[in-house]
Amino acid sequence: MDESTKKIALVTGAGSGIGRSVALTLAAAGWAVAVAGRRTEPLEETAEAAGEGADVLCVRADVSDPDDVTALFESVRARYGRLDLLFNNAGTFGPGGVPLEDISYEDWRSVVDVNLTGAFLCAQAAFRQMKRQDPQGGRIVNNGSISAHVPRPHSIAYTATKHAMTGLTKSLSLDGRPYRIACGQIDIGNAATEMTERMQTGILQANGQLAVEPVMDAADVARTVLHMAELPLEANVQFATVMATSMPYIGRG
Description:
This protein has a single domain (8-243), classed as Rossmann fold (3-Layer(aba) Sandwich). The strands form two sheets. The chain has a seven-stranded parallel beta sheet, sandwiched between helices. 39% of the residues lie in helices and 17% in strands. By secondary structure, it is an alpha/beta fold. Residues 7-189 form the Ketoreductase domain. InterPro entries: KR_dom, NAD(P)-bd_dom_sf, Sc_DH/Rdtase_CS, SDR_fam.
Protein backbone atom coordinates (compact mmCIF):
# COMPACT_ATOMS: atom_id res chain seq x y z
CA MET A 1 0.00 0.00 0.00
CA ASP A 2 1.15 3.54 -0.79
CA GLU A 3 2.39 5.07 2.48
CA SER A 4 0.76 8.38 1.55
CA THR A 5 -2.68 6.75 1.44
CA LYS A 6 -2.28 4.36 4.36
CA LYS A 7 -5.01 4.76 6.97
CA ILE A 8 -4.06 5.13 10.63
CA ALA A 9 -5.99 3.46 13.45
CA LEU A 10 -5.70 3.51 17.22
CA VAL A 11 -7.13 0.58 19.17
CA THR A 12 -7.37 0.75 22.96
CA GLY A 13 -7.45 -2.39 25.05
CA ALA A 14 -5.53 -4.08 22.25
CA GLY A 15 -3.53 -6.53 24.33
CA SER A 16 -6.22 -9.20 24.30
CA GLY A 17 -9.71 -10.20 23.25
CA ILE A 18 -11.73 -8.04 20.90
CA GLY A 19 -9.11 -5.28 20.85
CA ARG A 20 -6.40 -7.66 19.69
CA SER A 21 -8.69 -9.23 17.08
CA VAL A 22 -9.68 -5.84 15.68
CA ALA A 23 -6.06 -4.64 15.61
CA LEU A 24 -4.96 -7.75 13.72
CA THR A 25 -7.83 -7.48 11.25
CA LEU A 26 -7.05 -3.83 10.53
CA ALA A 27 -3.35 -4.57 10.12
CA ALA A 28 -4.11 -7.44 7.72
CA ALA A 29 -6.23 -5.01 5.68
CA GLY A 30 -3.27 -2.65 5.30
CA TRP A 31 -3.92 -0.18 8.08
CA ALA A 32 -1.18 1.17 10.30
CA VAL A 33 -2.32 0.40 13.83
CA ALA A 34 -1.34 1.93 17.16
CA VAL A 35 -2.21 -0.50 19.95
CA ALA A 36 -2.68 0.74 23.50
CA GLY A 37 -3.16 -0.97 26.84
CA ARG A 38 -2.04 -0.98 30.43
CA ARG A 39 0.68 -3.63 29.97
CA THR A 40 3.42 -3.57 27.36
CA GLU A 41 3.98 -7.32 26.98
CA PRO A 42 0.48 -8.18 25.66
CA LEU A 43 0.70 -5.27 23.22
CA GLU A 44 3.99 -6.61 21.90
CA GLU A 45 2.34 -10.02 21.51
CA THR A 46 -0.39 -8.37 19.42
CA ALA A 47 2.25 -6.67 17.27
CA GLU A 48 4.11 -9.95 16.81
CA ALA A 49 0.90 -11.73 15.81
CA ALA A 50 0.31 -9.08 13.13
CA GLY A 51 3.36 -10.33 11.26
CA GLU A 52 6.64 -8.93 10.04
CA GLY A 53 5.23 -6.61 7.39
CA ALA A 54 2.61 -4.98 9.62
CA ASP A 55 2.97 -1.38 10.78
CA VAL A 56 2.11 -1.58 14.49
CA LEU A 57 3.00 0.93 17.20
CA CYS A 58 2.76 -0.24 20.82
CA VAL A 59 2.00 2.40 23.46
CA ARG A 60 1.46 1.59 27.12
CA ALA A 61 -1.38 3.75 28.40
CA ASP A 62 -4.08 3.73 31.06
CA VAL A 63 -7.06 5.36 29.37
CA SER A 64 -8.45 6.51 32.72
CA ASP A 65 -5.35 8.71 33.23
CA PRO A 66 -5.56 12.04 31.35
CA ASP A 67 -1.77 12.34 31.17
CA ASP A 68 -1.45 8.85 29.71
CA VAL A 69 -4.10 9.65 27.10
CA THR A 70 -2.32 12.86 26.12
CA ALA A 71 0.97 11.00 25.76
CA LEU A 72 -0.74 8.22 23.76
CA PHE A 73 -2.12 10.59 21.16
CA GLU A 74 1.14 12.51 21.00
CA SER A 75 2.92 9.23 20.23
CA VAL A 76 0.48 8.46 17.42
CA ARG A 77 0.84 11.96 15.97
CA ALA A 78 4.65 11.82 16.19
CA ARG A 79 4.75 8.48 14.35
CA TYR A 80 2.01 8.96 11.75
CA GLY A 81 1.03 12.63 11.66
CA ARG A 82 -2.71 11.91 11.60
CA LEU A 83 -5.45 9.58 12.89
CA ASP A 84 -8.25 8.10 10.77
CA LEU A 85 -9.87 5.72 13.25
CA LEU A 86 -10.20 5.40 17.01
CA PHE A 87 -11.64 2.11 18.22
CA ASN A 88 -12.64 2.96 21.79
CA ASN A 89 -12.46 -0.56 23.14
CA ALA A 90 -10.76 -0.55 26.56
CA GLY A 91 -13.13 -1.71 29.26
CA THR A 92 -13.57 -3.70 32.43
CA PHE A 93 -16.52 -5.62 33.85
CA GLY A 94 -15.53 -5.02 37.46
CA PRO A 95 -16.19 -7.48 40.28
CA GLY A 96 -18.31 -10.35 39.01
CA GLY A 97 -21.27 -11.75 40.88
CA VAL A 98 -21.25 -9.10 43.62
CA PRO A 99 -24.71 -7.96 44.78
CA LEU A 100 -25.40 -4.27 44.31
CA GLU A 101 -25.39 -3.52 48.03
CA ASP A 102 -21.91 -5.02 48.44
CA ILE A 103 -20.12 -3.14 45.63
CA SER A 104 -17.44 -0.86 47.05
CA TYR A 105 -17.07 2.73 45.96
CA GLU A 106 -13.59 1.90 44.69
CA ASP A 107 -14.90 -0.89 42.46
CA TRP A 108 -17.71 1.31 41.11
CA ARG A 109 -15.28 4.14 40.43
CA SER A 110 -12.73 1.91 38.68
CA VAL A 111 -15.35 0.67 36.18
CA VAL A 112 -16.63 4.19 35.51
CA ASP A 113 -13.09 5.54 35.14
CA VAL A 114 -12.10 3.00 32.49
CA ASN A 115 -15.34 2.37 30.60
CA LEU A 116 -16.80 5.86 30.51
CA THR A 117 -14.18 8.44 31.46
CA GLY A 118 -11.51 6.60 29.48
CA ALA A 119 -13.74 6.49 26.41
CA PHE A 120 -14.46 10.21 26.78
CA LEU A 121 -10.79 11.15 27.19
CA CYS A 122 -9.77 9.18 24.11
CA ALA A 123 -12.66 10.54 22.05
CA GLN A 124 -11.80 14.09 23.11
CA ALA A 125 -8.17 13.64 22.10
CA ALA A 126 -9.24 12.06 18.80
CA PHE A 127 -11.57 15.00 18.11
CA ARG A 128 -8.75 17.46 18.65
CA GLN A 129 -6.49 15.56 16.26
CA MET A 130 -9.14 14.95 13.60
CA LYS A 131 -10.29 18.58 13.58
CA ARG A 132 -6.81 19.97 12.95
CA GLN A 133 -5.43 17.45 10.48
CA ASP A 134 -5.52 17.89 6.71
CA PRO A 135 -7.63 16.44 5.25
CA GLN A 136 -9.91 17.03 8.18
CA GLY A 137 -12.01 14.29 9.75
CA GLY A 138 -11.96 10.68 10.85
CA ARG A 139 -14.05 8.04 12.55
CA ILE A 140 -14.63 6.88 16.11
CA VAL A 141 -16.14 3.46 16.80
CA ASN A 142 -17.17 2.87 20.40
CA ASN A 143 -17.39 -0.60 21.88
CA GLY A 144 -20.77 -0.68 23.53
CA SER A 145 -22.25 -4.01 24.55
CA ILE A 146 -25.47 -5.94 24.69
CA SER A 147 -25.44 -4.40 28.17
CA ALA A 148 -26.01 -1.01 26.53
CA HIS A 149 -29.55 -2.35 26.02
CA VAL A 150 -30.28 -4.90 28.76
CA PRO A 151 -28.43 -5.80 31.99
CA ARG A 152 -27.21 -9.04 33.43
CA PRO A 153 -27.77 -9.76 37.12
CA HIS A 154 -25.19 -8.15 39.40
CA SER A 155 -23.71 -5.90 36.70
CA ILE A 156 -24.82 -2.41 37.68
CA ALA A 157 -21.48 -0.62 37.17
CA TYR A 158 -20.79 -2.21 33.79
CA THR A 159 -24.37 -1.78 32.61
CA ALA A 160 -24.55 1.86 33.68
CA THR A 161 -21.33 2.71 31.83
CA LYS A 162 -22.44 0.88 28.68
CA HIS A 163 -25.79 2.69 28.67
CA ALA A 164 -23.79 5.90 29.06
CA MET A 165 -21.61 4.88 26.12
CA THR A 166 -24.69 5.13 23.90
CA GLY A 167 -25.18 8.74 24.98
CA LEU A 168 -21.49 9.41 24.37
CA THR A 169 -21.77 7.94 20.88
CA LYS A 170 -24.79 10.06 19.99
CA SER A 171 -23.16 13.27 21.24
CA LEU A 172 -19.92 12.53 19.42
CA SER A 173 -21.85 11.81 16.24
CA LEU A 174 -23.69 15.10 16.46
CA ASP A 175 -20.73 17.25 17.53
CA GLY A 176 -18.52 15.71 14.85
CA ARG A 177 -20.72 16.66 11.91
CA PRO A 178 -19.10 20.04 11.16
CA TYR A 179 -15.63 18.46 11.09
CA ARG A 180 -16.26 15.26 9.04
CA ILE A 181 -15.92 13.16 12.20
CA ALA A 182 -18.22 10.14 12.10
CA CYS A 183 -19.01 8.14 15.22
CA GLY A 184 -20.73 4.79 15.55
CA GLN A 185 -21.11 2.06 18.14
CA ILE A 186 -20.82 -1.71 17.99
CA ASP A 187 -22.78 -3.63 20.62
CA ILE A 188 -21.24 -7.05 21.12
CA GLY A 189 -22.77 -10.15 22.65
CA ASN A 190 -20.77 -13.17 23.80
CA ALA A 191 -17.62 -12.92 21.71
CA ALA A 192 -15.19 -15.61 22.87
CA THR A 193 -12.61 -13.71 24.96
CA GLU A 194 -11.10 -13.91 28.43
CA MET A 195 -14.04 -11.82 29.70
CA THR A 196 -16.61 -14.33 28.46
CA GLU A 197 -14.95 -17.59 29.53
CA ARG A 198 -17.56 -18.00 32.28
CA MET A 199 -20.30 -18.14 29.62
CA GLN A 200 -19.08 -21.61 28.74
CA THR A 201 -19.18 -22.93 32.31
CA GLY A 202 -22.49 -21.40 33.39
CA ILE A 203 -23.55 -17.84 34.12
CA LEU A 204 -26.37 -16.45 36.24
CA GLN A 205 -29.58 -15.77 34.34
CA ALA A 206 -32.41 -13.36 35.18
CA ASN A 207 -34.51 -16.24 36.52
CA GLY A 208 -31.83 -17.12 39.07
CA GLN A 209 -30.59 -20.22 37.26
CA LEU A 210 -27.12 -20.89 35.90
CA ALA A 211 -26.88 -21.62 32.19
CA VAL A 212 -24.15 -22.16 29.62
CA GLU A 213 -24.40 -19.59 26.82
CA PRO A 214 -23.16 -19.87 23.22
CA VAL A 215 -20.28 -17.67 22.10
CA MET A 216 -18.93 -16.52 18.75
CA ASP A 217 -15.45 -15.92 17.39
CA ALA A 218 -14.06 -12.45 18.13
CA ALA A 219 -12.94 -12.35 14.48
CA ASP A 220 -16.60 -12.03 13.51
CA VAL A 221 -16.73 -8.81 15.51
CA ALA A 222 -13.49 -7.57 13.99
CA ARG A 223 -14.80 -7.93 10.45
CA THR A 224 -17.75 -5.74 11.36
CA VAL A 225 -15.47 -3.06 12.82
CA LEU A 226 -13.38 -3.18 9.63
CA HIS A 227 -16.50 -2.63 7.54
CA MET A 228 -17.51 0.35 9.69
CA ALA A 229 -13.97 1.73 9.52
CA GLU A 230 -13.63 1.51 5.75
CA LEU A 231 -16.84 3.31 4.85
CA PRO A 232 -16.36 6.77 3.35
CA LEU A 233 -16.90 9.52 5.90
CA GLU A 234 -20.11 10.42 4.09
CA ALA A 235 -21.60 7.14 5.41
CA ASN A 236 -21.83 5.85 8.95
CA VAL A 237 -23.01 2.73 10.76
CA GLN A 238 -24.56 4.48 13.75
CA PHE A 239 -25.29 1.33 15.76
CA ALA A 240 -24.53 -2.31 15.01
CA THR A 241 -25.29 -5.38 17.13
CA VAL A 242 -23.12 -8.45 16.61
CA MET A 243 -23.90 -11.41 18.84
CA ALA A 244 -23.79 -15.15 19.16
CA THR A 245 -26.93 -16.16 17.28
CA SER A 246 -28.51 -18.25 20.03
CA MET A 247 -27.48 -16.26 23.09
CA PRO A 248 -30.30 -15.20 25.43
CA TYR A 249 -30.48 -11.54 24.41
CA ILE A 250 -33.73 -11.36 22.47
CA GLY A 251 -36.09 -12.30 25.27
CA ARG A 252 -33.53 -11.88 28.04
CA GLY A 253 -35.33 -11.94 31.36
